[in-house]
Design goal:
binds uracil, Uracil-DNA Glycosylase, subunit E, 236 residues, globular, 50% helix
């Protein structure tokens, strides 16, 4: 076997092992069946005509200069994934790597998020991932209320365009911004909430899990609730 092939095999095995270790940490015994990723609900021509698309909203956002973050950002991070996703995940704001790449959750926390999705039987292309803020706050400081207020309308429109079955709020900041509450994330997580008529599951942020791996079990419980709801709607 060529050295190249051996190296490739070694990398594949290492990736599989890391996924397995993650699942074991979560206490996963068997992988559930994953519901189809796409929203099959027919939207009909009349509906399509009335509703703006993710691309329309992106165009409207343009080279956004609506708040001070425009000055310090490298790239605006709109969101990625499936425009017909049944599951939307919302984080806080781009970090350093996201700001450079223009894509959400591509750093270390993002790699953990990919593994959580894999444990759910999904990939990034199946879901839609975005943030409360589209631009990185300098030095990752907390977003300011006026920044959230300015940016939020675009997120609301994105979610309205996708019409997912479920929204997952990742971490304290995203959940507090989405739900307009100050209830601690430790109390909110695991309990279904209502976001503009869509069930929202609050859970811990993957960056928090990197520092507090014991939280992974709770996150897995929350993701199992998400899968149950998605499967119930497919079967029911
Ligand atoms: N943390 C977030 O909340 N969002 C990202 O896109 C990356 C890290
Ligand atoms: N604190 C946070 O800021 N986020 C979490 O997800 C958990 C605790």
């Amino acid at each position: 076997m060529s050295e190249h092939l051996v190296n490739e095999l070694r990398e594949t095995l290492a990736a599989a092992r890391s996924q397995f270790e993650y699942l074991r940490d979560l206490g996963v015994e068997s992988l559930g069946t994953c519901p189809p990723a796409e929203n099959k609900v027919s939207q009909g021509p009349a509906h399509a005509a009335a509703q703006e698309s993710l691309d329309d909203i992106h165009l409207d956002l343009g080279d956004c200069q609506r708040c001070g973050l425009a000055e310090s950002r490298t790239r605006l991070v709109y969101g990625v994934g499936n425009p017909n996703a049944r599951l939307v995940l919302v984080g806080e704001a781009p970090g350093r790597e996201e700001d450079l790449r223009g894509e959400p959750f591509v750093g270390e926390a993002g790699r953990l998020l990919d593994r959580i999705l894999a444990a759910m039987g999904m990939q990034r292309k199946d879901v839609y991932i975005c943030n409360v803020l589209k631009c990185r706050p300098p030095n990752n400081r907390d977003p300011l209320p006026e920044e959230v207020a300015t940016c939020e309308a675009f997120l609301v429109r994105q979610i309205a365009a996708i019409r997912p079955q479920v929204v997952v709020g990742l971490g304290r900041f995203a959940v507090h911004s989405l739900l307009k509450t100050r209830i601690p994330i430790s109390q909110l997580r695991g309990e279904w909430q209502n976001y503009h008529g869509i069930p929202l599951m609050p859970t811990y942020h993957p960056a928090y899990l990197l520092r507090n791996p014991e939280g992974k079990r709770d996150v897995w419980e929350d993701m199992k609730s998400v899968l149950r709801l998605m499967n119930a709607e497919v079967e029911g």
